[in-house]
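To the wet lab folks,

You asked to see what we're planning to order before we commit. Fair enough. Below is the target structure as tokens, and below that is the sequence we designed to fit it. If anything looks off to you, flag it before the synthesis order goes out.
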């Protein structure tokens, strides 16, 4: 869904937004009712996940409450804090948590073992991860999440996020992982929990 479609549909008012971030060379047209600051970032898709995590941190810190993040006309995500969800009576689709990056640049499968270990004893735990979204579907040498289906999906980070949230809803899965692995092999992960 495009940013314009998301902002003109039912349930959201453009004036509620604290910020709009447009990613990529082509800016998406926005409705004239958008009065919040609009930032255009000419970044390539390999940088989207890092920017996505920065937006999540801004929400957690209380700097902003409602942010629209969009990549050209293909996909967008409305990110809201618990305050915004309550204030505007919004129905969230998922809880998103940025996980630590693979700073050591180890192989993806080995790093996922570390991610699984970091979820041990937490809710959701490794056994609750039912799908892993990878760009392009790089095969995993070992999958430390026994219930997880590995989805090799094309498209932008935001399009893959939407597909992962829909899949969790359709299958009643508890949680999934959204992964990105830019050319420098610095893997980023977001834990996506179905609400």
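Sequence we intend to order:
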């Amino acid at each position: 869904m495009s940013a314009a479609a998301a902002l003109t549909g039912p349930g959201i008012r453009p004036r509620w937004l604290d910020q709009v971030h447009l990613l990529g060379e082509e800016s998406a047209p926005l409705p004239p009712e958008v009065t919040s600051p609009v930032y255009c970032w000419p970044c390539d898709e390999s940088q989207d996940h890092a920017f996505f995590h920065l937006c999540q941190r801004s929400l957690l810190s209380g700097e902003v409450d409602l942010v629209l993040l969009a990549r050209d006309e293909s996909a967008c995500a409305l990110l809201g804090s618990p305050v915004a969800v309550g204030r505007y009576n919004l129905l969230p689709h998922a809880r998103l948590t940025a996980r630590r990056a693979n700073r050591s640049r180890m192989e993806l499968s080995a790093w996922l073992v570390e991610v699984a270990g970091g979820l041990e004893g937490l809710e959701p735990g490794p056994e609750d991860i039912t799908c892993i979204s990878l760009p392009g579907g790089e095969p995993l040498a070992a999958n430390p999440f026994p219930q997880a289906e590995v989805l090799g999906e094309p498209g932008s980070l935001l399009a893959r996020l939407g597909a992962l949230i829909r899949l969790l809803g359709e299958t009643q899965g508890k949680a999934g992982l959204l992964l990105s692995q830019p050319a420098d092999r610095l893997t980023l992960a977001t834990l996506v929990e179905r609400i």
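Structural context that might help your review: Residues 31 and 166 are 26 Å apart (CA to CA). The chain has two domains: 3-91, 96-194.

Thanks,
Computational group
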